[in-house]
Each structure stands twice: as C-alpha cells, then as structure tokens.
Amino acid sequence: MTPIPPGVPEVPVRPVAERRGSRRTQVGTPAVGGGAAVSVRSVTTTRTADVGATLQRIAEPTASGCQIVRVACPTQDDADALSPRAPRPVRGHRQ
C-alpha cells in the first residue's frame, strides 16, 4: 500500500481561458463595460404594476448613491403602468 502524505493535497492548476473584451455603453450617465469604472447597481423586486412601491424601491437605492436601477416589466400591464412615469425612454428586452 502506498503511504498518503498528511496535509491538504495540491489542486492542479486549471488553465484560464482568455477573456474577450467587452464594449463600453452608456446607461444614462454612467458607462458600463469596456474598462469603465464599476458602477453601483440594484434591481427592483416589486410588482412593477404597483407603481408606488416600484418608485419607492427605485428611490431608496438612488438616495444611497446607486447609479443604475433595473426594473423588470414581465407583462404588458407592467410596462404600461410604468412607461409614462419613466425619467428616460424605457428600453425593452424580449426573450
């Protein structure tokens, strides 16, 4: 029987794939990607059709210095409720 040395066995080093570069884009004022500085971000967890709760949830992190708040609009009712109140044009993402 081969003796096993005590201690933690060495973990083989895994080769790291080279990362591809990203493009810089503006999200309002802050830039994202492409070597831009890290920006503080948050995401709402409220029902977006509940406009009062969603706007409150947006106001809380922005008052603390958050630069980007993402709001999900999974249904057309959510998008319709929020779009007239959006401070900038709402850009949608469909899957």
UniProtKB/TrEMBL annotation:
Domain IspG TIM-barrel, residue spans: 23-83
GO MF annotation: an example: 4 iron, 4 sulfur cluster binding
Pfam families the UniProt entry points to: GcpE
The protein's Enzyme Commission number: 1.17.7.1
UniProt region (Disordered), positions on chain: 1-33, 74-95
Keyword vocabulary terms for this entry: 4Fe-4S, Iron, Iron-sulfur, Metal-binding, Oxidoreductase
Residue ranges the record marks as coiled coil: none
InterPro entries noted in UniProt: Dihydropteroate_synth-like_sf, IspG_bac-typ, IspG_TIM
Superkingdom to which the source organism belongs: Bacteria
Keyword Iron-sulfur: yes
Required co-factors: [4Fe-4S] cluster
Name by which UniProt lists this protein: 4-hydroxy-3-methylbut-2-en-1-yl diphosphate synthase
Keyword Oxidoreductase among UniProt keywords: yes
Single Gene Ontology BP annotation: isopentenyl diphosphate biosynthetic process, methylerythritol 4-phosphate pathway
